[in-house]
């Protein structure tokens, strides 16, 4: 029987970043094929190629034996490919039944809505997945996992033959997970092929038939799930030649600067955080997507203020209830979403650099262009930013240079604590090395650095200590020199094995 | 039930007001003045239904007052020239739809913001009309008054037409796919595009429809007086939008139903006469109208904040 | 000077557009001036120029203060009504309240600021949509004006010394120019030379991004609406001086002119992009158009229509190339442009 999907040697680059470097993959009918890999391994790009959102630079794709070229999202849908993303494309103000109906019914506006049929179909589909979702409920009242289930239902209803699920259980409860598994098994029984992306090894063992591991845009290996064990999978995920240089620490760390005791924020799911960062120290914060690291950073920075525990800076208890308060206390946060929160693309570099220090650099509110320009040029020189000039808009910079400007903005506040959230995401190798040097230099100058990263080598290479988060709290701590598989295992929630 | 809490609240307030009037100023319910008031509000109801659909698709149209005036004059001129009712109705509606299509093309085709586009078309239409008419009233043939029926007969016909239109639109906004698509587009335009609902065409269509409704409303207005006042329709866009907002239609799109709009129209229309019958000076009408809008929007805002947390 | 340069060239790809927009507007203005000079009889005289200034001072003030509001991505439909209310209150405080004119003026300014504060509280604090809130206050303020005057009351018989403010000249220019200039300079400074102006743009471009940078978004947004109230009150006083009377319908329709001038001047209704000098050009273009058409013996309605058409042309000019590009692009399958932020 022809495989549902066959990919040969797919290549895809974005500028200097090579996201896929010759990936081959196949999906059989009635199979659950797991896709495993770290953040940045190429999973999302692969999915986008399969769903027609991106065209590959090279390589071939066959669907049920027929070669497919120039795939578009609409064409992919018509060929039976459906993807359940983490951000559902639903209509929040409309009911579940209507959402399903709008997706599945014909799209010409001139017909009467078959409400009875719609309700019936919604009920049938929802029953099939066993959820307790009320078809008349407005989608905006559903939790994120429930919305994902609705998306799955739409895919089911559309008769998709290839269903891709991207971290579907990231925020589901146990009960909801069981429902999801039942849905996946149901799909498999009907001959549908499921590409299942997940970090949770126990799920992969429970659900998948085969697993493919991606690393750095390449297929490391495809195995039957019953022929491989966890350790091997983890090693496949993380083993790599170290090509990046992570500058080692120069001095022993100094006094404690940031100390959290029992900190939590109910709204964001962070709880019971105890951590300490000392001057001159780079503390890496590892964990998987959904572990709560960004939420923790945003709590420390005052975007989602803590409602439990206490935060101390250099021994003084502080209350941080807004970003302004955080900045005043000397805390800086370089956000994960660079293009929306880190840099304002439409405004010039100089404006971006001074965005957080208005009261300091512009006393009385008056802009001082000469001072601003000099400051910007100094940062551009020190950080190695390549740009047309301080007046060039943020959007004209490459990812790496944008990240440096985002960093410059916060360095300008002369912080005591610097929180970096995925500092080298989407940055090319050259700029990465430069950023690592900068971070180490900052630490040497006495800054306390908390670095959130999903890039394991980065965490291992840069950190003086590594904290691992999972489920909203810190679950492990490792010293410098820890091994990749130890950290990954802790992030995944694996029980530690004896001297591996 | 909870889903309609907003509309029910408005209906509740309306009932309380009506009840209070029944007790303190029963003269409010005298049939003839009441009929006159209702007939005068019939065009407003039509416009409010139209603007509600525009807002549901996350757009706004502040040119409807001018659309109304221009259509009224168009109808008046045709009537004065002796054209029969059916023809005048058809042409006026088509004319309104054509003007609406201009709005639609600019908003949907050129992707210009609807607030500015309809601001410009409002001014162009209003000034153009003023230039053309020079304030001159148009005298209508006697046969046009109240469709040629008695005043009472005409008023009842108008009210029935408006209610019929309301029922039809309310039914359509539940059962006609095209209007459901408007809700989808207003709720999440990108998801609508992905689902193949063609948001740009839907946006164009809603402006055309709004124009057509303005034409129809204009005709309903024309038959109520012996002359057409070229300044009719001043402030009507505000009344219509206010009624929609009070009735639960959100500016952000995707929510609201026409029964709420109906309640909103009645509520706002009752304020002025209520003031008269309660011996409060009528000059407070605009202020109260503004206060009602603000209350409605604050109520919605607080409710949303509660829902989020 | 270096900054003046970089302010205009501030945002490169969009800079080209802004640059184009403002120079086109300037050309339009010059074109209008030349045309009306040739066609109209008394158009280019100093007297007439002063007339133009006199008649456009109030709308100019409203347009000036509307600019930072629109830069933050908001809008204020209530400024015209507030002008009317403030004019009435000014008259009432003076005539019925027995206050001296300067004191009445001071109180009016305060009331204007408070009224702006109402908008500020609802929009900045409660995060309600500016369009509907100011639609509500548009009605509320006008309603108060009508209620207080019972629809008929007018305040007149102001002393000549007061009327001079609106009708006479002072040091060679119409008196209201001396009020207009400081406000114009002040708001220009605020938007282009202070960190407040920076934050307005940041809030207009990416409100969340501004918050992440530690900017006090609510305070800044509140400021622009309070300022609008204050300036509307000032405009009301000048209006009353110019017309010699204060009626409840003062300022009707002014908000629309103000918004037209702002958008014409190149400020994007979505926020972030725009300039105060652009607004001034927009006000000038509209004022000269109105005045010139009178001199060319055209009916004043033509001015209104042309203004509306000009607004559409200004908006559409930048969108037509985009439309053509969209029509030429393949219908489906065009991969979305990639962000280097998210390569895998």
Structure in words:
By secondary structure, chain A is α/β, with parallel strands linked by helices. In chain A, about 35% of the residues lie in helices and about 25% in strands. Chain A has two domains: about 230 residues, Rossmann fold (3-Layer(aba) Sandwich), CATH 3.40.50; about 240 residues, P-loop containing nucleotide triphosphate hydrolases (Rossmann fold, 3-Layer(aba) Sandwich). A six-stranded mixed sheet of chain A has the order 6-7-8-3-9-10, with helices on both faces. Chain A has a six-stranded mixed sheet with strand order 16-17-18-13-19-20, sandwiched between helices. With about 300 residues, chain B is an all-alpha fold. Chain B has twelve helices and two strands. Chain B starts with a helix and ends with a helix. Chain C is mainly alpha-helical and about 350 residues long. Chain C has one domain: ABC transporter involved in vitamin B12 uptake, BtuC (Orthogonal Bundle), CATH 1.10.3470. Chain C contains 14 helices and two strands. In chain C, helix 3 runs antiparallel to helix 11, helix 7 packs across helix 11 and helix 13 packs across helix 14. The longest helix of chain C is centred in the last third of the chain and has 29 residues. At the A-C interface, helix 1, helix 2, helix 10, helix 11 and helix 14 of A face helix 1, helix 2, helix 9 and helix 10 of C.
Topology (elements, then pairings):
The complex is a heterotrimer of chains A (500), B (309) and C (344).
Chain A: E1 5-14, E2 17-27, E3 32-36, H1 43-50, E4 58-63, E5 66-67, H2 73-78, E6 81-84, H3 96-104, H4 115-129, H5 144-157, E7 162-166, H6 174-189, E8 193-197, H7 201-207, E9 210-215, E10 218-224, H8 230-238, E11 256-265, E12 270-278, E13 282-287, H9 293-300, E14 308-313, E15 316-318, H10 323-328, E16 331-334, H11 338-342, H12 349-353, H13 358-361, H14 369-383, H15 399-411, E17 417-421, H16 429-444, E18 448-452, H17 456-462, E19 465-470, E20 473-479, H18 484-492
Parallel strand pairs in A: 3-8, 3-9, 6-7, 7-8, 13-18, 13-19, 16-17, 17-18
Antiparallel strand pairs in A: 1-2, 1-4, 4-5, 9-10, 11-12, 11-14, 14-15, 19-20
Chain B: H1 5-24, H2 31-56, H3 64-80, H4 85-109, H5 114-133, E1 138-139, H6 151-175, H7 177-187, H8 189-194, H9 199-222, E2 227-228, H10 236-246, H11 258-277, H12 285-308
Chain C: H1 2-8, H2 12-39, H3 46-71, H4 79-95, H5 101-125, H6 130-149, H7 160-167, E1 169-170, E2 173-174, H8 177-193, H9 195-205, H10 207-212, H11 217-243, H12 254-264, H13 276-295, H14 300-328
Antiparallel strand pairs in C: 1-2
Helix pairs in contact in C: 2-13, 3-8, 3-9, 3-11, 3-12, 3-13, 4-5, 4-6, 4-11, 5-6, 5-11, 7-11, 8-9, 12-13, 12-14, 13-14
């Amino acid at each position: 029987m022809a495989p549902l999907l066959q990919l040969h040697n797919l290549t895809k680059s974005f500028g200097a970043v090579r996201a896929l470097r010759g990936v081959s993959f196949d999906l059989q009918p009635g199979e659950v094929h797991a896709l495993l890999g770290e953040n940045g391994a190429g999973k999302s790009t692969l999915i986008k190629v399969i769903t027609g959102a991106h065209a590959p630079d090279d390589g071939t794709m066959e669907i049920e034996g027929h070669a497919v070229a120039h795939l578009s999202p609409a064409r992919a849908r018509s060929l039976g490919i459906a993807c359940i993303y983490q951000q559902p494309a639903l209509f929040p103000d409309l009911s579940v039944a209507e959402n399903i109906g709008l997706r599945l019914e014909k799209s010409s506006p001139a017909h009467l809505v078959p409400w009875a049929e719609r309700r019936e179909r919604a009920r049938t589909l929802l029953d099939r997945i066993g959820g307790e979702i009320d078809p008349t409920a407005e989608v905006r009242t559903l939790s994120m996992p429930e919305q994902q289930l609705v998306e799955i239902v739409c895919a089911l209803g559309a008769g998709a033959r290839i269903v891709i699920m991207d971290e579907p259980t990231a925020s589901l409860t146990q009960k909801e997970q069981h429902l999801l598994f039942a849905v996946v098994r149901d799909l498999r029984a009907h001959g549908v092929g499921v590409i299942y992306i997940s970090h949770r090894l126990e799920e992969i063992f429970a659900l998948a038939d085969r697993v493919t591991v991606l690393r750095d845009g390449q297929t490391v290996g495809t195995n039957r799930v019953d022929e491989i064990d966890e350790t091997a999978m983890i090693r496949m995920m993380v083993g790599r030649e170290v090509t990046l240089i992570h500058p080692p620490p120069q001095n022993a760390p100094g006094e404690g600067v940031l100390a959290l005791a029992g900190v939590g924020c109910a709204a964001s799911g962070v709880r019971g955080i105890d951590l300490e960062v000392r001057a001159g120290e780079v503390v890496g914060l590892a964990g998987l997507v959904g572990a709560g690291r960004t939420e923790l950073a945003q709590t420390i920075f005052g975007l989602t203020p803590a409602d439990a525990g206490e935060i101390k800076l250099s021994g003084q208890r502080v209350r941080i209830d807004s970003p302004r308060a955080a900045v005043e206390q000397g805390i800086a946060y370089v956000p994960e979403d660079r293009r929306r929160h880190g840099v304002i693309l439409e405004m010039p570099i100089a404006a971006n650099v001074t965005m957080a220090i208005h009261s300091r650099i512009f006393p009385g509110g008056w802009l001082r262009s000469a001072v601003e320009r000099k400051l910007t040029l100094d940062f551009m020189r020190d950080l190695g930013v390549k740009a047309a000039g301080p007046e060039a808009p943020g959007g004209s910079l490459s990812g790496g240079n944008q990240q440096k400007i985002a960093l410059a903005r916060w360095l300008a506040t002369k912080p005591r604590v610097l929180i970096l959230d995925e500092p080298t995401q989407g940055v090319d190798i050259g700029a990465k090395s430069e950023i690592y040097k900068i971070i180490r230099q900052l630490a040497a100058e006495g800054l306390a650095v908390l670095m959130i990263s999903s890039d394991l080598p980065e965490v291992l290479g840069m950190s003086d200590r590594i904290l691992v988060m999972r489920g909203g709290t810190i679950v492990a701590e490792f010293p410098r020199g820890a091994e990749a598989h130890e950290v990954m295992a802790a992030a995944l929630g694996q029980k530690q094995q004896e001297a591996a | 039930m909870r889903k309609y809490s907003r509309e029910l609240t408005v209906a509740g307030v309306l009932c309380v007001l009506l009840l209070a009037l029944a007790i303190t100023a029963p003269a409010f319910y005298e049939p003839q003045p009441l009929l006159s008031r209702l007939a005068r509000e019939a065009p407003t109801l039509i416009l409010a239904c139209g603007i509600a659909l525009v807002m549901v698709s996350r757009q706004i149209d502040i040119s409807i007052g001018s659309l109304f005036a221009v259509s009224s004059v168009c109808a008046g001129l045709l009537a004065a020239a002796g054209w029969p009712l059916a023809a005048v109705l058809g042409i006026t509606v088509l004319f309104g739809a054509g003007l609406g299509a201009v709005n639609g093309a600019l908003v949907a085709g050129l992707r210009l913001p609807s607030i500015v586009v309809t601001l410009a078309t409002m001014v162009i239409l209003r000034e153009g009309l003023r230039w053309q008419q020079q304030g001159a009233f148009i005298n209508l043939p006697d046969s046009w008054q109240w469709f040629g029926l008695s005043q009472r007969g005409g008023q009842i016909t108008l009210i029935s037409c408006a209610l019929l239109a309301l029922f039809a639109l309310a039914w359509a906004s539940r059962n006609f796919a095209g209007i459901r698509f408007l809700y989808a587009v207003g709720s999440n335009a990108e998801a609508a595009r992905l689902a193949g609902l063609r948001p740009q065409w839907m946006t164009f269509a809603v402006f055309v429809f709004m124009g057509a409704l303005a034409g129809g409303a204009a005709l309903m207005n024309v038959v109520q007086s012996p002359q057409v006042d070229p300044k009719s329709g001043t402030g009507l866009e505000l009344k219509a939008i206010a009624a929609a907002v009070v009735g639960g239609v959100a500016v952000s799109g995707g929510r609201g139903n026409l029964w709420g709009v109906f309640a909103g129209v009645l509520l706002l229309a009752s304020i002025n006469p209520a003031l008269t019958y309660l011996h409060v000076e009528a000059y407070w009408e605009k202020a109260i109208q503004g206060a009602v809008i603000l209350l409605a929007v604050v109520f919605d805002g607080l409710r949303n904040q509660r829902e989020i947390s | 000077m270096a900054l003046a340069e970089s302010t205009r060239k501030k945002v490169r790809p969009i800079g080209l557009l802004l640059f184009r927009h403002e120079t086109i507007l300037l050309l339009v203005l010059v074109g209008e001036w030349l045309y009306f000079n040739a066609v109209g009889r008394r158009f280019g005289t100093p007297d007439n120029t002063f007339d133009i200034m006199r008649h456009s001072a109030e709308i100019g003030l409203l347009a000036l203060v509307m600019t930072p509001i629109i830069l933050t991505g908001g809008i204020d439909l209530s400024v015209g009504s507030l002008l009317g209310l403030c004019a009435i209150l000014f008259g009432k405080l003076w005539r019925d309240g027995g206050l001296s004119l300067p004191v009445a003026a001071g109180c009016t300014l305060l009331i204007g600021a408070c009224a702006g504060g109402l908008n500020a509280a609802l929009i900045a604090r409660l995060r309600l949509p500016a369009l509907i809130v100011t639609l509500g206050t548009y009605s509320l303020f006008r309603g108060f004006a009508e209620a207080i005057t019972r629809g008929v009351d007018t305040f007149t018989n102001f002393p000549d010394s007061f009327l001079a403010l609106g009708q006479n000249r002072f040091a060679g220019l119409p008196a209201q120019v001396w009020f207009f200039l400081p406000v114009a300079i002040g708001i220009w400074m605020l938007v282009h030379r202070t960190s407040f102006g920076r934050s307005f743009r940041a809030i207009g471009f990416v409100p969340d991004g501004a918050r992440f940078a530690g900017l006090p978004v609510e305070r800044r947004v509140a400021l622009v609406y309070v300022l609008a109230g204050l300036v509307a009150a000032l405009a009301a006083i000048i209006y009353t001086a110019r017309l010699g009377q204060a009626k409840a319908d003062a300022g009707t329709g002014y908000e629309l002119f103000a918004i037209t001038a702002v958008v014409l001047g190149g400020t994007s209704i979505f926020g972030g992009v725009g300039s105060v000098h652009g607004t001034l050009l927009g006000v000038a273009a509209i004022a000269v158009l109105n005045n010139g058409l009178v001199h060319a013996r055209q009916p004043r309605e033509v001015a209104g229509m042309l203004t509306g058409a000009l607004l559409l042309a200004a908006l559409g000019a930048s969108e037509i190339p985009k439309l053509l590009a969209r029509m030429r692009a393949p219908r489906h399958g065009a991969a979305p442009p990639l962000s280097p932020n998210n390569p895998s």
